[in-house]
């Protein structure tokens, strides 16, 4: 993490991250803190999030703001965004990271499962944007980074609702970019490949399956959560000031 490039315009920026307490999100929270940003993150994992805050403070001397909320609850999401604004100032960078790639078959999906899955993986991204956009419009600037996935690009059959949601993130990104560009607000997406978080290792990684996937990659290494930090910082910063409506694939060259 210490080898990540510095982006001076992120120092002092008010950053809001969804799902920032574990996995990729925890690395993003730490990464923005190390840039000198004022970071708030929303998560439902209370203990892990509080542990992360303590760890980051011990390592950097600065503590992110943890906001406990279930992102499926739009009222709670809006309230969390309001608290982030009160504490850190108007949000200038929004990172829509939260997701849950629960495996499921076509046969077992109910309408209730579908709605819940879409709420976690797609719907909250729109309402998080809606919550912070008024102040971005006033400032005539802002950067929004939405996390999608290569899962929908590789025809994976074990998560059709998740794949639909992640494809939807790309469409949402492009639609928001068109709507918000006239206000100087950029909207881009990151599509990670198979990132080996603790959850992935615990639930789905096998030695054979992992090796088969790495064999498909151009870069023959495991993708770590930390590998998403640099691309996200780049899209959040003015280094990418003329980039919008784009999806950056970070998958070691699988797609």
General description of the model:
The chain is α/β, with parallel strands linked by helices and 255 residues long. The protein has a single domain, classed as NAD(P)-binding Rossmann-like Domain (Rossmann fold), CATH 3.40.50. The chain has helices spanning 23-34, 46-60, 74-88, 111-139, 160-180, 198-203, 207-216, 229-236, and strands at residues 14-18, 38-43, 65-68, 93-96, 142-147, 185-192, 247-250. It has a 7-stranded parallel sheet, sandwiched between helices. Strand 2, helix 2 and strand 3 form a beta-alpha-beta unit. Helix 4 (111-139) packs parallel to helix 5 (160-180). It is globular, with a radius of gyration of 17 Å.
Q: Biggest sheet, strands in spatial order?
A: 3-2-1-4-5-6-7
- Termini gap: 26 Å
Q: Which ranges are low-confidence, i.e. pLDDT below 50, for 5 or more consecutive residues?
A: none
The top-level CATH class is Alpha Beta
CATH topology: Rossmann fold
Count of domain modules: 1
Q: Approximately what portion of the residues adopt beta-strand conformation?
A: 5-15%
CATH architectural group: 3-Layer(aba) Sandwich
| Shape type | globular
- Which range best describes the helical content: under 10%, 10-25%, 25-40%, 40-55%, 55-70% or over 70%? 40-55%
Could you say which structural class the secondary elements and strand pairing correspond to? Answer: alpha/beta
Rounded to an integer in angstroms, the radius of gyration calculated over CA atoms is 17 Å
Q: How do the helices and strands follow one another from N- to C-terminus?
A: EHEHEHEHEHEHHHE
Strand runs, count: 7
**How many separate helices?**
8
Q: Kindly report the name of the CATH homologous superfamily.
A: NAD(P)-binding Rossmann-like Domain
Sheet with the most strands, sense and barrel status: 7 strands, parallel
Mean pLDDT across residues: 97
InterPro entries: KR_dom (IPR057326), NAD(P)-bd_dom_sf (IPR036291), Sc_DH/Rdtase_CS (IPR020904), SDR_fam (IPR002347)
Pfam families: adh_short_C2 (PF13561)
Keywords: Oxidoreductase
GO molecular function: oxidoreductase activity, acting on the CH-OH group of donors, NAD or NADP as acceptor
